[in-house]
Amino acid sequence: MSVPILECVDVHAAYGRIEVLRGVDLKVPRGAVVALLGPNGGGKSTLLKVISGQMEKTSGHVHMAGVNVHGASADDLARLGLTTIPEGRSVFPNLTVEENLLLMSYAGVAPDKVFDTAYSYFPRLHERRYQLAGTMSGGEQQMLAMARALTSDPALLLLDELSMGLAPLIVDELYETVAKIAESGVSILCVEQFARTALRVSDYAAVMTGGRVVATGEPNEINEIMADVILGGAA
Ligand SMILES: Nc1ncnc2c1ncn2[C@@H]1O[C@H](COP(=O)(O)OP(=O)(O)OP(=O)(O)O)[C@@H](O)[C@H]1O
């Protein structure tokens, strides 16, 4: 079996004296989509922060493609191919769609490539290329956030609550694109409250509660009843 693109081993992290991650073990195989599910406050966003270098763990190991990334900054991790789409839409509301995308070219990506990637995944962004990002719907802003992330050609994409505040139909549409992104070879770890939608496009799922991963498996192995209880009906 090849080295996983991401492996967390016994990861602990705390806010001040309150320990929030209490020994997380998690693997994302290369090319896989892994859904990270669980109730509010279980530690999912905190784990993404640790993986993406925004927060220091107190102990444990995080390996990317077999490399221990202890002490790596968010920039170092980006160079290793890690890209994060954080909770909420990280777009510039007073810039147009095209200007938001062009900012990526300052990160060293050629403008043509930026536009080609963005518009091939999201034709709707092409239709709205001269519109101010802040005037678009929540779903369209999320598309723009995803498009910007994709232009950096990630090896591993971390998605935090893609569905936040969006209607179920739009969430389905976004996850169809997640499936297409995965088909292109990008590995994906997604935190999601809409468990059923995420499970439809996932190869594996992990359920996190109380700062630990308490169940892992293929989507059909994640016990529906347990998911319903743990997710408090959010599935
Ligand atoms: N900046 C912070 N300072 C102190 N405590 C925090 C901070 N951020 C999160 N926490 C706490 O850490 C715990 C885990 O939060 P986290 O956001 O990681 O959970 P989550 O599983 O992502 O939940 P949600 O789905 O609600 O975002 C919660 O008890 C939360 O109150």
UniProtKB/TrEMBL annotation:
Pfam families: ABC_tran. InterPro entries: AAA+_ATPase, ABC_transporter-like_ATP-bd, ABC_transporter-like_CS, BCAA_Transport_ATP-bd_LivF, P-loop_NTPase. PROSITE patterns: ABC_TRANSPORTER_1 (PS00211), ABC_TRANSPORTER_2 (PS50893). It comes from the Bacteria. Residues 6-235 form the ABC transporter domain. One of its GO terms (biological process) is L-amino acid transport. Keywords: Amino-acid transport, ATP-binding, Nucleotide-binding, Transport. GO terms for molecular function: ATP binding; ATP hydrolysis activity; branched-chain amino acid transmembrane transporter activity. PANTHER family: HIGH-AFFINITY BRANCHED-CHAIN AMINO ACID TRANSPORT ATP-BINDING PROTEIN LIVF. Belongs to the ABC transporter superfamily. This is ABC transporter ATP-binding protein. It comes from Nocardioides marmorisolisilvae. The lineage of its organism: Bacteria, Bacillati, Actinomycetota, Actinomycetes, Propionibacteriales.
